[in-house]
Amino acid sequence: MDEPIFESSGNIFADLDLEPAEAAILQMRAKLMNDLRLYIQSAGLTQMEAAKILGIAQPRVSDLMRGKWDKFSLEMLITFEARAGRQVTLEMAV
């Protein structure tokens, strides 16, 4: 039997029927984690170098690079972006 196909809302967490506020926070966390991973990779930083910039221990950078989202709050990820000299902006959908 074929499963029905639904168009995505653009937020996988909302598509999983999570409460809207929780879905929004999870989406922001996922985006910030991905942005930080891309920054570390594109800058050619080692995990030790990234740890120094972000003000955390190297194992925490490893968690970040491996996408262990449950280990990082939204506030913590915003702090990492600021420590890396990057600016975080929010876009609100209406």
Summarize the structure.
Helix content is 56%, strand content 0%. With 94 residues, it is mostly helical. 13% of the residues are buried.
How many domains in all?
Answer: 1
CATH homologous superfamily label:
lambda repressor-like DNA-binding domains
CATH topology: the name is 434 Repressor (Amino-terminal Domain)
**Distance linking N and C termini:** 37 Å
Query: What is the percentage of strand-forming residues?
Result: under 5%
Radius of gyration, in Å, reads: 16 Å
Descriptive notes:
With about 90 residues, this protein is an all-alpha fold. It has a single domain (about 15-85), classed as lambda repressor-like DNA-binding domains (434 Repressor (Amino-terminal Domain), Orthogonal Bundle). Helix content is about 55%, strand content about 0%. The protein contains five helices and no strands. α3 crosses α4 (about 60-65).
